[in-house]
């Protein structure tokens, strides 16, 4: 590099660091520190999570508990002193689980632990029994000859892998989303899959599943992993394996629930806001502590910790989405309703990956926003959060409709998901699986992020 271009480079660097320094004053950075320390020590998110999962419990959309959760959220946002609290309607296909039981009949009778997938139809009242056909993957099932599963139960034994960022989930979930449709196309009368799970416990993992118009609906289930191993061992040893199952569920047509929203109003640009939140609903088997009571509690508490210190330039909006588990219905309703002013969102992040430590921070913003991002990253570093500079964050599931409709500034505060899929969507998703110390760290990370995004000089925007 020649001296002159080196000089230009040095000048550009010092100019950009001068600009960067202007994003936040010394006083603002002192306030960030104050919020980070208060949130790191406070029990507020733990108290909220304890209350939601204990006093309300499971929150399947449309149930009495779901209504209680909406009332709970509204009441607590008001008690925390949010400047505005309101609800917005969301509709969804309502579904209930009433009964599920199963047995291996042949070659040797034994219990089989399984659960209906969300949206599954019932078996006949007396149940059904049939021979089980094993596939290792969904693609193997798709490749099976037409009619080859007539009168049989299709079983996919795909194993998801364990990793910190949960990258095994997407490939495994394919079999949950469309396995029953593909099995029915080949003539199967019921569908079983290995749980989308990394665990060794004997709980089955539920989750959303879908039917397709024109394809016969068949009961769709997930088997606990040790039971999936048992079935596979029997079949691979050459036995004809026969199973009976009885699933009783109900499709209740269109249901209604509510996104619950709380906002602390910004002092300079009140219409612009940082969106943080989680989803208020949960599956019915556990108490939805990791998924997603933690996200609800920690984002509510993060906003409160900010407001205890100051009202930033822009508003902080906590959105607690409805009916996520049945297909992102609350998120779809929210981003449709606010379609005309999505440009007002200066940063969006959803916490919906449990409550293990936030280990990394990642943005998805335009170049002009990056100096703010780097300053936020510097203030997250004391919490042990590293900065991922890829600038291609996906955010949480409820931000998918936002990403699909506009180029919004999206952020990920990556939680360590190594153990998340041990408990996800099971009876075992309960409060004791959340570590209060880690929940504090999550709350502090969200508080630092939301405060700085709302208080920066530059209004951040998407790519
Ligand atoms: Zn979730």
Describe what this molecule looks like in 3D.
This protein has helices at residues 3-21, 26-41, 44-56, 64-79, 138-142, 169-185, 225-236, 289-309, 329-337, 370-380, 400-405, 420-423, 436-455, and strands at 84-106, 110-111, 114-116, 128-135, 153-156, 190-194, 220-223, 242-264, 269-279, 314-321, 345-350, 358-364, 386-388, 410-415. It is elongated, with a radius of gyration of 24 Å. The model has no long low-confidence stretch (mean pLDDT 95). 37% of the residues lie in helices and 24% in strands. The chain contains 13 helices and 14 strands. It has 2 domains: 24-83 and 265-455, Aminopeptidase (3-Layer(aba) Sandwich), CATH 3.40.630.10; 96-250, Glucose Oxidase, domain 1 (3-Layer(bba) Sandwich). The strands form 2 sheets. Strands 1, 2, 3, 4, 5, 6, 7, 8, 9, 10 and 11 form an 11-stranded mixed β-sheet that branches. A 3-stranded mixed β-sheet has the order 13-12-14, with helices on one face. It has 463 residues and is α/β, with parallel strands linked by helices. The site of zinc ion (ZN) has 5 residues, from helix 8. Zinc ion is lined by residues 279, 291-292, 324, 352.
């Amino acid at each position: 590099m020649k001296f002159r271009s080196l000089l230009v480079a040095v000048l550009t660097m010092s100019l950009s660091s001068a600009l960067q320094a202007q994003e936040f004053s010394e006083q603002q950075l002192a306030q960030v520190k104050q919020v980070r320390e208060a949130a790191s020590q406070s029990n507020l998110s733990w108290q909220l999570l304890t209350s939601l999962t204990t006093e309300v419990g499971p929150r399947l959309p449309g149930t009495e508990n779901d209504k209680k959760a909406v009332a709970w959220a509204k009441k607590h946002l008001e008690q925390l002193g949010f400047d505005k609290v309101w609800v917005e309607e969301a509709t969804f296909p309502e579904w209930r689980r009433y009964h599920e039981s199963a047995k291996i009949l042949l070659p040797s009778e034994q219990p089989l632990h399984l659960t209906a997938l969300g949206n599954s139809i019932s078996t006949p009242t007396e149940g059904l029994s049939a021979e089980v056909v094993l596939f290792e993957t969904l693609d193997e099932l798709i490749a099976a000859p037409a009619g080859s599963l007539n009168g049989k139960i299709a079983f996919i034994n795909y194993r998801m892998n364990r990793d910190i960022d949960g990258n095994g989930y997407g490939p495994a979930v394919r079999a949950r989303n469309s396995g029953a449709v593909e099995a029915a196309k080949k003539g199967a009368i019921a569908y079983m899959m290995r749980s989308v799970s990394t665990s060794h416990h004997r709980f089955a993992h539920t989750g959303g599943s879908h039917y397709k118009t024109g394809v016969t609906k068949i009961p769709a289930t997930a088997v606990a992993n040790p039971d999936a191993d048992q079935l596979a061992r029997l079949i691979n040893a050459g036995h004809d394996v026969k199973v009976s199952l009885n699933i009783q569920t109900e499709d209740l047509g269109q249901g209604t629930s509510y996104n619950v929203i709380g906002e602390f109003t910004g002092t300079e640009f009140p219409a612009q806001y940082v969106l943080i939140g989680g989803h208020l609903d949960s599956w019915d088997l556990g108490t939805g502590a990791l998924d997603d009571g933690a996200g609800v509690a920690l984002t509510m508490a993060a906003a409160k910790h900010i407001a205890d210190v100051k009202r930033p330039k822009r508003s902080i909006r906590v959105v607690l989405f409805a009916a996520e588990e049945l297909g992102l219905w609350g998120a779809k309703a929210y981003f449709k309703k606010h379609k005309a002013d999505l440009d007002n969102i200066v940063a969006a992040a959803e916490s919906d990956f449990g409550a293990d430590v936030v280990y990394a921070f990642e943005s998805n913003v335009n170049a002009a926003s990056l100096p703010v991002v780097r300053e936020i990253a510097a203030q997250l570093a004391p919490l042990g959060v590293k900065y991922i500079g890829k600038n291609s964050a996906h955010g949480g599931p409820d931000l998918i409709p936002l990403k699909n409709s506009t180029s919004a500034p999206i952020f990920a505060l990556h939680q360590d998901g190594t153990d998340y899929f041990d408990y996800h969507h099971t009876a075992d998703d309960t409060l004791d699986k959340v570590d209060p110390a880690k929940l504090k760290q999550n709350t502090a990370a969200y508080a630092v992020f939301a405060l700085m995004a709302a208080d920066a000089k530059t209004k951040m925007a998407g790519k």
